[in-house]
């Protein structure tokens, strides 16, 4: 599940900007969990979270409410966006138009200065996801609370597509991606946005 809306609205937060959830963000997360409960799909046995507060705070609250074990995994933090972090999309376009156009033309290889390359990010996230999936293979259902690009990578990984495909996956606040792990491989079950 992606975190809800953070304080400060939409902007490049990456792995360094650590804004907490807004009231609306908390409500979005609660609504998504309630929808999973009413559908009979909230039978998680463990929660894993990014260490960033916009994920971790809700993960800690939900784990405490349900008496579930919680693991914080630094490998599930968001992709670093370098010098764009903290800026809105409008501000990036105004201040770094050439870099922005290069990134949009080749988002795998043309990160902003100081940003994390897609190959390293993809490997970091999929290695962590595989580790958690293997640990839960004995019938447990793990809820991972993460970020937009982490969710996109998970979907692309399950579909066995190239990393460039992450830019064609829409991930709204509090969206939920369900994967099934069988025989050491992920498969996509559903992506719930909005």
Write structural notes for this entry.
With about 190 residues, the chain is α/β, with parallel strands linked by helices. It is built from 6 helices and 5 strands. The chain has a 3-stranded parallel sheet with strand order 2-1-3, covered by helices on one side. It has a two-stranded antiparallel sheet with strand order 4-5. α3 crosses α4 and α5 packs across α6. The longest helix has 18 residues.
Given helix and strand content, the structural type is alpha/beta
Estimate the strand proportion.
Answer: 5-15%
Rg measurement, Å: 16 Å
Q: Which H/E pattern describes the elements? A: HEHEHHHEHEE
Most strands sheet: 3 strands, parallel
Spatial sequence of strands, sheet with the most strands: 2-1-3
Features:
194 residues, alpha/beta, three-stranded parallel beta sheet, two-stranded antiparallel sheet, 6 helices, 39% helix, 13% strand, globular
């Amino acid at each position: 599940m992606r975190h809800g809306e953070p304080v400060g609205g939409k902007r490049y937060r990456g792995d360094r900007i650590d804004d907490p959830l807004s009231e609306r963000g908390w409500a979005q997360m609660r609504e998504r969990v309630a929808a999973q409960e009413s559908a009979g799909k909230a039978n998680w046995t463990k929660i894993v979270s990014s260490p960033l507060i916009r994920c971790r705070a809700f993960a800690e609250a939900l784990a405490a409410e349900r008496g579930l074990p919680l693991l914080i995994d630094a490998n599930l933090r968001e992709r670093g966006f370098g010098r764009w972090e903290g800026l809105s999309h409008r501000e990036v376009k105004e201040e770094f138009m050439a870099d922005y156009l290069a990134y949009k033309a080749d988002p795998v290889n043309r990160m902003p200065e100081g940003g994390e390359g897609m190959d390293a990010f993809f490997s970091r996230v999929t290695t962590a996801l595989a580790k958690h999936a293997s640990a839960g293979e004995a019938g447990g259902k793990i809820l991972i609370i993460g970020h937009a690009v982490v969710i996109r990578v998970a979907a692309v990984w399950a579909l066995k597509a190239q990393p460039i495909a992450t830019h064609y996956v829409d991930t709204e606040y509090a969206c939920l991606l369900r994967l099934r792990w069988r025989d050491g491989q992920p498969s996509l079950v559903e992506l719930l946005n909005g």
